[in-house]
Amino acid sequence: MNADFSDLETAAKSWEGMGKRFGTLGGHYRDHVRAAVDADSWQGEGAKMFGKWGGKTAEEYDQAEEEARGVGALFRLAHATFESHKKAVEKARDDAQAAGMDVNSHGHCTMNLDKVEAKKGKKVADRYRESSESKEKVEAEWTDSIKKAVKEAQAADGAMKAAFMADPKEPDEGLPDGFNGSVGDDAVKAGANRAAKAYKSLRDGQTPSPEELREAAMLTRGLGDDPEFSRTLINSLGGPEGLIKAHNRLDDLAYSDDKDHRKTYVSLDQGLAKNLASATKNPKTAFYKKFRAEMRKAGLSKFDLKVTENVDGGGAGQKIRGYQSFVSLMQRTDGDEYGKQFLTDTADAVRDAEEKSQGGHSDIWDLRGDFHGKKYAHFADDPYDGLLKIMSDQPDVSAEYLDPVRPRTTIFSTCCTIGTGSTSTWETAQSEDMTRTKRAKAHERVWASSSRLGRRVANRVHRARHSGDIHPPRLGSCMTPSTGSTTVTRMAKGSQGTTESERPTSS
Question: Phi and psi of 447, rounded to 5°?
Answer without folding.
Answer: -65, -40
